[in-house]
Amino acid sequence: MLKSLTEPLVGDIEHYNVIDPSKSTGNFYAVVGSVGYIPPEYAYIMTVTMAGNVYSFGVILLELLTGKPAVTDGLELVKWVLSNPTNQDYILDFNVSRTSEAIRNHMLAILNIALVCVSTSPEARPTMKSVLEMLLNTR
Fold first, then answer.
1. Cα–Cα–Cα angle for 70, 121, 55, nearest 5°?
2. In the chain, at which residue ranges do the beta strands (DSSP E only) sit?
3. What pLDDT digit, counting tens, does each position of 101-134 carry?
4. Predicted TM-score of the model (pTM)
């Protein structure tokens, strides 16, 4: 997902800048997106936000860490991860959890960043700039 440490292929998705409701002449009746990546608040606010982009990025981080898709057999990855909060090693992909202690600890630190990104409260989510800083600080 990264071309280099300074050039992400997936980064600030910026739907907010592409679809700015304040500059639109029409009304939004539905937010289009893939199940599993859409933040929970979109169900009632129907507005694209920066916090929603952070949520989607957090889902991508969870996919990388767990080796699972955003939705499996109707169960969203975020809900599955949040239902296993005490066993973080169980959440990580088996290939990650059986590596060195240093790599495992690094992945657990990234898991904690992903969990902040997928917070149910949009106000509790960091900015993408903060997410990048946190990711770089885990190295």
1. 30
2. 2-4, 7-8, 71-72, 75-76
3. 888 889 999 999 999 999 999 999 999 999 999 9
4. 0.75
